[in-house]
Backbone:
């Protein structure tokens, strides 16, 4: 199996971590807080999308063709990762929750949504780092 390049995912995780660190050290309600929160939400979205794309590449060898994996939805990619013992059931359930949260961004960029995303970040960072390890392992 060819190696999957996870450098961009690593950069996304680092950006998300930095945004999270900055927001924790800013005053809620300040402009600074809102700037960091907006950055954090965007970094969350990009990290989530990148994670799905790379996991799709990781599970491709389990299928007859790349076309088969190209037809999978984002959520199905994670379900198959569990089927092939790359992720636990609990991890997959969290990733599905992250995806649901992400899907809400298309409809609601308000403060409540941003705060909900913020509440997911700590666990998401751990899951994203773990997923990177899964993708990096042969």
Residues:
């Amino acid at each position: 199996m060819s190696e999957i390049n996870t450098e961009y995912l690593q950069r996304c995780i680092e950006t998300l971590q930095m945004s999270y660190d900055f927001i924790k050290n800013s005053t809620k309600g300040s402009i600074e807080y809102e700037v960091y929160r907006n950055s954090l939400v965007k970094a969350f979205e990009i990290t989530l999308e990148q994670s799905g794309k790379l996991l799709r590449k990781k599970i491709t060898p389990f299928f007859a063709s790349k076309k088969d994996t190209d037809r999978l939805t984002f959520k199905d990619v994670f379900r198959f990762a569990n089927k092939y013992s790359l992720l636990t059931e609990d991890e997959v359930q969290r990733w599905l929750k992250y995806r649901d949260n992400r899907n809400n961004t298309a409809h609601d960029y308000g403060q409540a949504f941003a705060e909900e995303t913020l509440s997911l970040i700590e666990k998401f960072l751990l899951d994203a780092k773990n997923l990177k390890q899964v993708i990096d392992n042969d």
